[in-house]
Specification:
The chain is an all-alpha fold. 73% of the residues lie in helices and 0% in strands. The protein has 12 helices and no strands. The longest helix is centred in the N-terminal third of the chain and has 37 residues.
């Protein structure tokens, strides 16, 4: 006679699957990621090459119409979704590394170390994050990019994109640090932590082998919720012309191009509706997945 058990991971997955909206949103995000990578290749269209029919309305040939240069908007939207999702994922990972490390050290050390580390977080919270990112990108353009462009001119677009990812991640870790620090303050007095200290486990090993595994659920939830905020920041910066530069495209630059074509004489609605609609769907799906993970990993919050 065998008794079939369920691990905490399987139980959390079952609770997540019971939330229909979260499951549908996760499937949509996976489909969007695959289509954004393979879609332009399947279409066989160069998203940066102009065509002969600018401002063509959606039809059987161009499902989303064309832009001012006659480029296929569907291919541009897929490329834009790929870049926006990549920026959101990488920026969230940067915030994960900084926020988790900062919160772990502050919560474990306590005392004066915790006080000055969290006061610095409070100061950074008071600063406007968009202004900080704009300043960082401007300094990179004026100081770092000139030296790098002389040696690797072909890598300028990739360098700009990497700089934006790092800058966005460097301002998105504050909430993660606070949450991790609060959890560490709660865990450090647990019996298994006190027993590990009594047998002489080093602080570094204790944080990595005992504290960090118990923080996985909280970290995953806030990591999922960080991705849409980073995507939204990137879209706003690209809308202002400080993010992705032509001929590259993100959803923010496509929305900006569509908004520039709105006028009382002729409304080319497809230039704005399709990229803005996809942006809204992606943000809603990311938030739904994050909410589903929170409910799955913290079942005590549910009735």
């Amino acid at each position: 006679m065998s008794i079939e058990g369920s691990s905490p991971g399987r139980m959390a997955w079952r609770r997540f699957c019971r939330r229909t909206m979260a499951g549908v949103s996760l499937g949509f995000l996976l489909l969007a990621a695959v289509v954004s990578v393979l879609g332009p290749w399947v279409l066989g269209v160069d998203p940066n090459q102009g065509g002969e029919t600018p401002f063509a309305a959606p039809d059987a040939r161009h499902w989303m119409g064309t832009d001012i240069h006659g480029r296929d908007l569907l291919a541009r939207v897929l490329i834009g979704a790929r870049i926006s999702l990549m920026v959101g994922a990488v920026g969230a990972m940067v915030s994960l590394v900084i926020g988790v490390g900062w919160g772990l050290v502050a919560g474990w050390r306590g005392g004066r170390t915790d006080a000055w580390m969290m006061r610095l977080v409070d100061v950074l919270y008071a600063l406007p994050t968009v202004v900080w990112v704009m300043l960082a990108l401007t300094l990179f353009e004026t100081r770092g990019l000139g030296w790098l462009s002389e040696r690797w001119p072909a890598s300028i677009p990739a360098l700009r994109l990497a700089a934006m990812m790092i800058a966005l991640g460097s301002v998105s870790w504050l909430t993660m640090a606070r949450v991790v620090r609060a959890q560490v303050l709660s865990l450090r007095e647990r019996p298994f932590i006190l027993a590990a200290q009594a047998v002489g486990v080093s602080p570094a090993r204790l944080m990595l082998r005992h504290l960090l595994p118990n923080l996985t659920g909280v970290i995953l939830v806030y990591l999922t919720l960080t991705v849409p905020s980073v995507v939204l920041y990137e879209s706003f910066l690209s809308f202002l012309g400080l993010g992705v530069r032509p001929p590259q495209a993100s959803l923010g630059t496509l929305i900006a191009d569509g908004a520039s074509q709105l006028n009382p004489i002729r409304v080319r609605w497809w230039l704005l509706v399709f990229p803005a609609g996809l942006m809204a769907l992606l943000l809603a799906a990311l938030n739904a997945v994050g909410e589903g993970l929170r409910s799955a990993l913290e079942p005590r919050d549910e009735r």
